[in-house]
Amino acid sequence: MTDRLPPFDQDAEMAVIGACLESPATSVPEISQTIPSPEVFYDLRCRSAWDIISGLNPHEVEVISLCGKIQDMDHRASGVFLSQCVNQCSSAAFLSSWLEIICGKYFLRRVIQVASLAVRDAYAATDVLEVMDAFERDVMAIRPAKRQGQSITELVRDAMAEIEDRFTRQGTISGLSTGLHDLDLECDGLHGGEIIVIAAFPSFGKTALAMNIVEHVALDCGKAVGIFSAEMSAKSLVIRCLCSRGRINLRDVRDGKLAGSDFSKLMPASSALAASKMVIDDTCGLTTSQLRQRARQMKQAHGIELLVADYAQLFASSGAENRTNEVDQVSKCFKGIAKELNIPVILLSQLTDTGNGGVRTKNAAAIEEDADGLWLLRRPKDAKDSPDDLACAMELWLKKQRNGPRNVCINLTFLKPYTRFELAPKIEREYQNPTND
Question: Model-level pTM greater than 0.85?
Answer without folding.
Answer: no
